[in-house]
Amino acid sequence: MSKTTDERGRIYLPKDVRDRFGDQYRIVELPSHVALFPVDEDPLEGLRAAVGDAFAETEADKLKTESRKAISREVQEEAKDRTQDGEA
What we know:
AbrB/MazE/SpoVT family DNA-binding domain-containing protein
């Protein structure tokens, strides 16, 4: 599917796409392209649906804490890699 932005940079998704995937999307910038990923109305429910019962007994606060720690580690690794690339 090919779409063009309007004068304000908006992209209009066809109704059948919105019906299948919803109205909220995360825009992810990759080195060679941009991707849209649907965002569930209830992200925690979406996660549970995607991974089955792996988190069935885990409370939301614990999931948030673990997610924040993982994101922090990823950011620190990326900063370290950028520093090393700049020194090379």
